[in-house]
Amino acid sequence: MSVQSFNEAVIEEFRANAGKVGGPFEGAGLVLLTTTGARSGQEHTVPLGFVREPDGEQLLVVASAAGADRHPAWFHNLLAHPLVRVETGTEEYGAVAMPAAGARRAELFAHVVRQEPGYGEYQQRTEREIPVVVLQRTHETASGEDGVAGKLLEVHGWLRAQLGHVRREARDHVAAGGGGPAPLGLQLRQHCLAFCQSLEFHHTSEDAGLFPYLASQHPHLAAFFERLAREHRVVSGLQEEIVQLLDQVGEGEGAGAGIVERLEVMSRELEGHLDREEEQLLPVLRALGAP
Ligand SMILES: [Fe+2]
Ligand SMILES: [Fe+2]
Question: CA 274, 268, 230, 38: dihedral to nearest 10 degrees?
């Protein structure tokens, strides 16, 4: 049986039995992790063992590939697309995948090996440092409102919170002299990419779905929708610059300053845009009622 068809059989059993899988996984903690292909852009689901963080909050998964010398595909995927989906036996949620770095990685790996000694054996088989990935659950801020209006407020709330978080991290990173593991620090990179990708997804769905529909229902708002579309293009240009800067900035150069500056501009543009949308569109969406 190929690895792929084995995985497919496990995924099917997992989903059919609220996360319980027999055979070699009997009694083991298992999650399904869905990543977005780094090159293909296609969704890709794998069953993985997990260990809980020492404080019990988040789940940890280990890119061991059974001690092979190459990282598994899902690890490459989550570096390119940090937003992932996690299925446990009872729930399904979005998460930002955060590979631990430096001392934190060492601490978490030791914790993992205490729980599941097999990972220690895998590490002995390879020169590669086996990554430990924290699956940071994304918490949507409940808007307390139903329908499309409530959904829009929720997404905007998440984007605002995420951008605030990324700006703080970028400033901290520069203040710390731009050091830390990997260009700009993995943490900033993953959060920044997750924010940019969510923003892009949100604006694409507005441009392709919500706005054309609302414009057809409310022709007098045509100029307003054109303005929003222009703002989307401005924000999208900034987002591309930020993603490029993430890739270009080298380690320890203190060169995160460019990102801090671009994030400040992004913040001004985006806050104004979100405010405008909410001010003008929420009354229209509320009048629509439930979707
Ligand atoms: Fe928008
Ligand atoms: Fe929006």
Answer: -80
For residue range 182-210, what is the model confidence (pLDDT) as tens digits?
A: 545 788 889 989 999 999 999 999 999 99
| Sign of the dihedral defined by the CA atoms of residues 62, 127, 39, 160, in that order | positive
Question: Confidence band (pLDDT; 50, 70, 90) for 27?
Answer: low
Q: Using the mean position of ligand 1's atoms as its centre, give its distance from the Cα of residue 213 in Å.
A: 14
Distance 221 CA to ligand 1 centre (A): 15
Ligand 2 midpoint to CA 267 (Å): 14
What are 130-140's pLDDT values in tens digits? 999 999 998 77
Map out the domains of the chain with their CATH numbers: 3-137 (2.30.110.10), 147-288 (1.20.120.520)
Q: Please tell me the distance between residue 206's alpha carbon and the centre of ligand 1 in angstroms.
A: 6
pTM attached to this predicted model: 0.84
Distance, C-alpha 29 to centroid of its chain: 23
